[in-house]
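Q: Sequence in, structure out?
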Amino acid sequence: MTTLLVLIHHNGEWDSDNNFVNYSMEGIVVNTDVVFNGFIQLIAKHLNVDTSLNSLEIRYKLDETTIPMLIRNNMGLQVYIGLKKKTRNFKDYPLCITWKVIDIHHMVPITDGVVDNVNTHFNTNDFNNTNTLDLVEYNMSA
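A: Exactly. Output:
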C-alpha cells in the first residue's frame, strides 16, 4: 500500500486574488488507492468536521498564477494523487480545505423512498423567466 504525505491548509479563506489566506496548516497521510468519499471522510475526521452538517470543499493550485482546482469526484482526486506522486515534495500542491454548513431548510425529507411534504411556490414570473432554475436537494443518508 503506497501512501503520500499531504499538506493541508484549513480554517482560511480565498482572497480576491485566488490566494488562500489566514489558514492553519497540518499534514495527513493518504493511501494512493483512496476513493473520493473515503478521502472526504479522512479529512473531515482529521479536522473534526461533521459531514452530516457541513459540506467540504477541497481545492489546490498548480502554481501561484493559476486559479484553484476543485477536487469534486474520484477523477479529480486521481489527478491530484498523480501530481503528488510525481513530486513527492510535501510542500507542493497543498490542499486548501473550506467547509460550510449545509442549508437544511432546503432539504426535502424522504421516508421509504417517497418525498414527503414538498411545497413549491410559483408566481407567474417563474414561468416566463428562463434564467430561473429551482433545485431540490435530497439527503439520502438521513
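Residues 104-138 form one domain.
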